[in-house]
DNA sequence: AAAGCGTGGCG
DNA sequence: TCGCCAAGCTT
């Protein structure tokens, strides 16, 4: 226990913080599709879990249409468990971190195998694929009313400011956890967690916190110090390399050749164009998958988490059949192939070139 | 336990 | 413009 949270406990303001935050939440909670609407039934574990997985490292705005689409197409965990994994991957295309989609299906199937009910506590949830410490705590608190200490980037930011925790992340994790535990209420822990999220997305933003709108400003040591935006302190990040690579548009009779990437690793399990072997650690070889009269068709820039890629698009019209597994996909329907954004950009480029030719 | 893993928005 | 950042998990 660090000095600041000890002080809070000693002064008894920990419960005051929770009360003020919950009062603020009752007044200002965002209306989100995965939350209970006034007068409507509670969302239920399936929708809570689905939303939490989609929201991992992903903004509310990006998640919203995907959540609507998934819940309309697969209304229950049993329906999702019965779905074809490839179709789920395609439906996830564009949302990123595709291991989440694979784990989503695996998790749904485990839940379906236990009769369709999620474990109702943190420890049980934590054992399911794709559910880590954060998601287990969030689902336990929000869907099952458990007292759980829910810690995400919002909570880390709010708590590090509230208590002016100067140790850099990730080292400060344990201190942040103790402080978050100290202010988490026994009742309404789920609302408390969501209130922290709303606080982090509203008043207590990363860049320019609006302390005048914050219900906790009177309790905030970071603000009292004069510069709350300096929290949380973070360790410096490594520079990311820029890699060069190619991908190959092979067209025959109005269809383009698509492959499926290996199940693990970059864009794992997703449909893709053949490429020349580029990856985070190395440029591509430049070698096309088959010989022919290849034409350069421009390049796309794309940033990944740990490297940037300059991807050159090469095109070929042929009557040959590429070696290996793949499928001919109608060019006119390429928008429905479920391509991850990198290759969707390449497809857009290819289509724009065709327009110019015509 | 540090590194791999997407994407889009924002100041 | 571009670096930073987001309701993290896995190995």
From TrEMBL:
Q: Output the superkingdom of the source species.
A: Bacteria
Q: What class of enzyme is it?
A: hydrolase
Look up the record and name the cofactor or cofactors this protein needs.
Answer: [4Fe-4S] cluster
Where does the HhH-GPD domain lie?
54-202
Q: Which biological processes are named by the entry's GO terms?
A: base-excision repair; mismatch repair
- EC no. given is 3.2.2.31
| Residue ranges, annotated region (Disordered) | 276-295
Q: Which InterPro entries match?
A: DNA_glycosylase (IPR011257), Endonuclease-III-like_CS2 (IPR004036), HhH-GPD_domain (IPR003265), HhH_base_excis_C (IPR023170), MIG/MutY (IPR044298), MutY_C (IPR029119), NUDIX_hydrolase-like_dom_sf (IPR015797)
Family according to the record? Belongs to the Nth/MutY family.
For this entry, the protein name equals Adenine DNA glycosylase
């Amino acid at each position: 226990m660090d000095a600041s949270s000890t002080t809070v406990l000693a002064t008894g303001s920990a419960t005051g913080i929770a009360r003020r935050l919950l009062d603020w939440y009752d007044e200002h909670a965002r209306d989100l599709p995965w939350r209970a609407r006034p007068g409507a039934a509670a969302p239920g574990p399936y929708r809570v879990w689905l939303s939490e997985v989609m929201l991992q490292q992903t903004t509310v705005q990006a998640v919203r249409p995907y959540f609507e689409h998934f819940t309309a197409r697969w209304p229950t965990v049993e329906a999702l468990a019965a779905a074809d994994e490839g179709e789920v991957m395609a439906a996830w295309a564009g949302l990123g971190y595709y291991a989440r989609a694979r784990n989503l299906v695996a998790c749904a199937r485990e839940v379906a195998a236990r009769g369709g009910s999620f474990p109702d506590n943190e420890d049980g949830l934590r054992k399911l694929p794709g559910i880590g410490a954060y998601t287990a705590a969030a689902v336990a608190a929000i869907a099952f009313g458990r007292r759980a200490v829910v810690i995400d980037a919002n909570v880390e930011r709010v708590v590090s400011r509230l208590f002016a925790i100067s140790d850099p992340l990730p080292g400060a994790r344990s201190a942040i956890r103790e402080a978050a535990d100290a202010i988490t209420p026994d009742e309404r822990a789920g609302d408390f967690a969501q209130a922290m999220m709303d606080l982090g997305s509203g008043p207590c933003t990363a860049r320019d916190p609006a302390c005048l709108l914050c219900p906790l400003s009177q309790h905030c040591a970071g603000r009292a110090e004069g510069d709350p935006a300096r929290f949380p302190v973070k360790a410096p990040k490594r520079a990311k390399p820029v890699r060069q690579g190619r991908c190959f548009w092979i067209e025959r009779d109005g269809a383009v050749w698509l492959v499926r990437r290996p199940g693990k690793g970059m864009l794992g399990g997703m449909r893709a164009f053949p490429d020349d072997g580029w990856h985070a650690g190395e440029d591509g070889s430049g070698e096309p998958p088959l010989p022919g009269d290849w034409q350069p068709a421009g390049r796309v820039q794309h940033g990944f988490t740990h490297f940037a890629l300059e991807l050159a698009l090469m095109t070929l019209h042929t009557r040959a059949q590429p070696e290996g597994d793949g499928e001919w996909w109608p060019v006119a329907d390429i928008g429905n192939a479920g391509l991850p954004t990198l290759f969707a950009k390449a497809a857009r480029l290819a289509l724009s070139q065709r327009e110019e030719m015509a």
